[in-house]
Amino acid sequence: MPPKITVKKDYILVEPSAVDFWEIWECIGAAINLPEFPEKNDIWLFHDGPIKLSYVDLYRLKDSIQKYYPENASKNKTAIVVESGIQSAMATFFIQVADGLPFEIRVFTDFKLAEEWVKEH
User: Fold this and answer.
1) For the residues 59-78, what does the mean pLDDT come to?
2) DSSP string, 49-82
């Protein structure tokens, strides 16, 4: 199933169908290739379900983002919205792994709060 990515007025909404390395990797590629990506912040909305993602995979995802991230990008925020404690733990660990990326990442359990945050300037 292709990733569900919606370009909204103020941000890009990315909804992987699973917490799975290959699904997330595909979403990263699809999002980065959007013409709007360099200017718009994004929200990643993860739904509850099995996690097929290891800690090593988080480093591989960071490497992919670094390699393909547009040099001219002005976006500065990525919100990760999670539904479970284990998702929150994985997302928090990813923030530590992703240190040094050219944008801020925060974890939320409330979509509206994530949306407000990415809309702030």
Assistant:
1) 93
2) S-EE--HHHHHHHHHHHHHHS-TT----EEEEE-
